[in-house]
Design a protein that fits this description.
This protein is an alpha/beta fold. The chain is built from 13 helices and twelve strands. The strands form two sheets. Strands 7-6-8-9-10-11-12 form a seven-stranded mixed beta sheet, with helices on both faces. The protein has a five-stranded parallel beta sheet with strand order 2-1-3-4-5, sandwiched between helices.
């Protein structure tokens, strides 16, 4: 009798366990949520990087998008919105967006992409040990300044004065200013600094710039400025002003020349940060990466319109030539 009761008890336990096991198998895997501030085509490379790592939208990952609509003062609000959801990771591009995310949360991991100088901007204490909840990669913009000025001198004969567009709201740009002030005398160049921190300043600041008769203009990859790059490319074309950019996409859009790290590569590499964090690695344990791939792009059509002949040595080393 005892054996029979034990058998019945065992069968009953198995019957109860089976539905539980079935429900466990049917339960969907946790979907990770990544918040993105100011989605642009560059973020496609980030999403591609995640797909390569096995993430499928709607299955094991979801994206939450918020936009500041080109208005820097709205960044704080959209960052707080993402933190309140909450998301598992906040991904940002640009110093201002990274700072807004840090102000919105001290616990949600932040992956910053293509930051000019995160140490000087106060986003991390060092590249090797970012600490707290923020890591990512940098374009190390200040270290490119000498190369960009040299390229401009090669392309624009007799260049003497270069206007440098900077954003007073971008902490990384202080490094640019110091670097350029140190480089200009060595290259025999005068500098004209043009600060634009809000949309309503472009026309007046650029008009004042042209009164100083610069021989060329240099533009960074500041996200706020890039949201108005179409206007700047058109302005440079109408004023016959040679302009140097960091992003090769600006050259494809009609800009004269660009030199800088591969932004596509930086976004793809940032996907690896998000993956490691979602797997449990703390941001503080992931050093901030420096770029490993740089690109030079030249627009021959724009050069011709400006009356410039691109030297053969520049064409030989260009990664992309727009004809």
């Amino acid at each position: 009798m005892s054996t029979r009761r034990e058998f019945i008890a065992l069968m009953g336990a198995a019957a109860m366990a089976c539905p539980l096991a079935a429900r466990a198998q049917q339960r969907p895997a946790k979907i990770a949520r990544i918040g993105i501030i100011d989605d642009t085509p560059s973020w496609d490379h980030f999403r591609e990087g995640l797909r390569d790592l096995g993430y499928v939208a709607g299955q094991n990952i979801a994206f939450e998008y918020r936009s500041a609509d080109g208005q820097p003062e709205r960044l704080a609000a959209v960052a707080r919105d993402l933190a309140a959801l909450p998301v598992d990771v906040i991904a940002v591009s640009g110093t201002a967006a990274a700072r807004a995310a840090q102000q919105a949360t001290t616990t949600i991991p932040i992956v910053m992409i293509a930051i000019g100088d995160p140490v000087r901007a106060g986003l991390v204490p060092s590249l090797a040990r970012p600490g707290a909840n923020t890591t990512g990669n940098t374009i190390l913009g200040t270290e490119m300044s000498a190369k960009r000025l040299q390229l401009l001198k090669e392309l624009v004969p007799g260049l003497r004065r270069v206007a440098f567009l900077w954003n007073p709201n971008n902490g990384s740009h202080l490094g640019y200013l110091e670097e350029w002030r140190g480089l200009a005398p060595k290259l025999g160049l005068d500098l004209l600094f043009v600060d634009v921190g809000s949309p309503d300043q472009f026309e007046s600041k650029f008009a004042a710039m042209m009164r100083e008769q610069p021989g060329a203009l240099s533009v960074t990859a500041d996200p706020f400025h890039m949201s108005h790059v179409g206007w700047m490319v058109d302005f440079a074309a109408k004023r016959r002003l040679p302009a140097m950019y960091i992003l090769k996409d600006n050259v494809a859009a009609g800009g004269l020349m660009s030199y800088g790290p591969s932004i596509a590569d930086l976004y793809r590499r940032a996907a690896g940060y998000a993956h490691k964090i979602l797997q449990g690695t703390k941001p503080a344990e992931l050093p901030v990466e420096q770029p490993v791939k740089f690109e030079l792009a030249v627009n021959l059509k724009t050069a011709k319109a400006l009356g410039l002949e691109v030297p053969a040595n520049l064409l030989a080393i260009a990664d992309e030539v727009v004809e």
